[in-house]
Design goal:
This protein is α+β, with helices and mostly antiparallel strands and 86 residues long. It has helices at residues 6-19, 82-85, and strands at 21-28, 31-38, 47-56, 59-68, 73-79. It has a 5-stranded antiparallel β-sheet.
Length: 86
């Protein structure tokens, strides 16, 4: 049972904020990806995921562009294997 006091409300918000996500599709340079925000997050929170092609050693390789924040700021690229990164 959850009590209706301020302290309990913060505990509930923390629990829901860590386990419930809201997602929607986005477009990044005409490529469809998605944004995942914590359910209780405000504007500018969350992660953006977009499949892209990157040049690795002169060859095109599939990668996942991971961004975050209000402006989809680049955090890193994820590759299918460590071999592609080295």
């Amino acid at each position: 049972m959850i009590k209706a006091d301020k302290k309990s409300g913060y505990k509930l918000a923390d629990k829901v904020g860590e386990s419930a996500w809201a997602c929607h599709t986005i477009k990044y340079h005409k490529i469809i990806g998605f944004n995942a925000d914590g359910w209780l997050a405000g504007s500018g929170d969350g992660f953006y995921y977009v499949p892209v092609k990157k040049n690795v050693k002169g060859k095109k390789a599939n990668a996942l562009r991971v961004g975050e924040g209000a402006g989809n700021y680049l955090s890193y690229y994820a590759y299918k294997s460590r071999k592609l990164v080295k």
